[in-house]
Amino acid sequence: MTSAAQPGYDALAELYDETFPTAYGSAWERHAVAAFADEVHALGTGGTVLDVGCGTGHVTADLAGFGLTVIGIDPSREMVRIARGHHPDLRFVVDDAHLNSAELTDVTITAILARFSLIHVPPDEVSVILREWATRMAPGSMISVATQSTDNDDVAEFDHVVARAWRWPADRLSEALADAGFDEVWRIVSRPDDQHRFPAVVVTARRAHWG
Ligand SMILES: C[S@@+](CC[C@H](N)C(=O)[O-])C[C@H]1O[C@@H](n2cnc3c(N)ncnc32)[C@H](O)[C@@H]1O
To answer: I need a labelling partner for 185 at 20 to 30 A (CA). Which of 54, 82, 144, 208 fits?
Structure first.
């Protein structure tokens, strides 16, 4: 499968970069990434962390700063161009969440972080992608997925300014991970505030010893 085109992000990449000079809108988001990085370290297995939908690469750089080997992946060539400009020492690959790039074939994936990127994937396809990831990850390896959320029971499309997007109830995200073979370890659910119209959720999970 070829990379999903991201014309919206390509067109708005420079504006996105100016608007979001750091990755984190809140302290809890930064702490969530730090906690995930600590847990990946604790695995002690080496390998590579993939930052799927890395955007302009700020979180990729943070993961590297925590001492992890990391590759940033994004389907938007413009976002990757900017990420490479900010972080020329880091590795970035143009690809979508299916991870079909030949550059990733031989990578041993010890963990995957997907912050606010799977929101742009239709919900049915998210389930497919999570299963694909599970087949490429050893039992015990880690995954962390962040999305905009909702207090209702159903996944809901919302009016994202750049591309089609869906927000996930925390339980639905956890169930999708479990169905693919990832058991929830912890979650954070934030409340809307002046800067954020919706709740947001991070679910961090571990590849189960089955499937
Ligand atoms: C809101 S930005 C988040 C960037 C970064 N993860 C962060 O936390 O700052 C969403 C990113 O997801 C990427 N994206 C869109 N569709 C994707 C897909 N199918 N697979 C992987 N990434 C995708 C976009 O190109 C964009 O860079």
So the answer is: 54
